[in-house]
Amino acid sequence: MTGKEPLHTLARGGDGLFHHLLVDQALKVAIVLGALLVLALGMALIWKKAGRAGPRRDDR
């Protein structure tokens, strides 16, 4: 390998290190996106429970 091969040829060759690194990076991105989703849902729930989402029905 001279370093000028396309990425798909590097992914197929050798011990699969490049494939391992791609899978590892994809998992990390998925974990971060999942954590951001949970954070956003939690913040929306707290915001709603704190009464900042507008007038509540039982406060009439």
Describe the 3D structure.
The protein is an all-alpha fold. 65% of the residues lie in helices and 0% in strands. It contains two helices and no strands. The longest helix has 33 residues. It is rod-shaped, with a radius of gyration of 23 Å. The termini are far apart. 0% of the residues are buried.
Descriptive tags:
0% strand; mainly alpha; 2 helices; 60 residues
Secondary-structure-derived class: mainly alpha
Overall, the morphology is rod-shaped
Total number of strands: 0
* Spans where pLDDT lies below 50 across 5 or more residues: none
Strand content: under 5%
Order of helices and strands: HH
The DSSP helix count reads 2
How far is the N terminus from the C terminus? 73 Å
User: Rg from C-alpha positions?
Assistant: 23 Å
Helix content percent band: 55-70%
Mean pLDDT, rounded to whole units?
Answer: 80
What composes the largest sheet?
none
The gist of it:
The chain is mainly α and 60 residues long.
Layout of helices and strands, plus pairs?
Blueprint: H1 7-12, H2 17-49
